[in-house]
Amino acid sequence: MKGADIMQNTATCNFNVRMDTALKQQCEALYHSLGLNLTTAINIFLRKSLQEGGLPFELKHPKYNETTLAAMVEARQLANNPNAKRYNNIEEALQELKR
In the chain, how many domains are there? Predict the structure, then answer.
């Protein structure tokens, strides 16, 4: 489908999407700050998808630096270690850090 073909059909239809309420509110605020409403932003996304022949962005696994990867491994190990120190609230954890 060519770009001109995308614009020729001006008939509209309703499109219902279920999404997280907070996500919708955040996106509405973002697009409002750009002078758009959510409907216009979704239409832009769909038109760009047709132009690109797929998603208009690269879909890939995030890349983390070595420090972040090490912290993630440590966090998993601690979460799975039944002998690791546990805290009931943030204040308890902060008191431990002050020692």
Answer: 2
Joined together, the tokens standing for residue 46 give 């769909």
Which tokens sit at 83?
């002998």
Could you give phi then psi for residue 56, rounded to 5 degrees? -85, 25
Structure tokens at 98: 């002050």
Q: What is the CA radius of gyration of the chain?
A: 23
As a whole number of angstroms, the distance between CA 58 and CA 56 comes to: 7
Say if CB 47 and CB 1 are below 8 A apart.
Answer: no
Residue 28 in tokens: 């509405």
* Residues 6 or more apart in contact with residue 36 via CB below 8 angstroms: 44
Residue 52 above 90 pLDDT?
Answer: yes
Domain identity same for 48 and 70: no
pTM listed for this prediction? 0.54
